[in-house]
Design a protein that fits this description.
The chain is mainly β. The protein is built from no helices and 11 strands.
């Protein structure tokens, strides 16, 4: 079955960096665009970035433009989110999503990112 497993989260100081990974299995990864979402406590889940099937097109929410970079390796069925210049407001659980058939697509279990001094 479809499986998405995020990793790479952790505790980092403001201004620091983290690289998140999402390993996919159970579907043809290279045929699907991929997305990263995040959800902070008490807030709705929001789209952070997405990437086209070949990785040539990317989109970012305004608050992370210039700081975050989404990329993918279709040979390794993995999508990445490089996060630099992290801010307190980036604290959230980060999820990857694949728009596989079904009402909600496929989601990973999430990885916690905490930015704190």
């Amino acid at each position: 079955q479809v499986q998405l497993v995020e990793s790479g989260g952790g505790l980092v100081q403001p201004g620091g960096s983290l690289r998140l990974s999402c390993a996919a299995s159970g579907f043809t990864f290279s045929s699907y665009p991929m997305s990263w979402y995040r959800q902070a406590p008490g807030k709705e889940r929001e789209l952070v970035a997405d990437i086209s099937v070949a990785g040539r097109r990317t989109n970012y929410r305004d608050s992370v433009k210039g700081r975050f970079t989404v990329s993918r390796d279709n040979d390794k069925n993995t999508v990445f989110l490089e996060m630099n210049s992290l801010k307190l407001e980036d604290t959230a659980v980060y999820y990857c999503k694949a728009p596989t058939p079904g009402p909600y697509g496929s989601w990973g279990q999430g990885t916690q990112v905490t930015v704190s001094s």
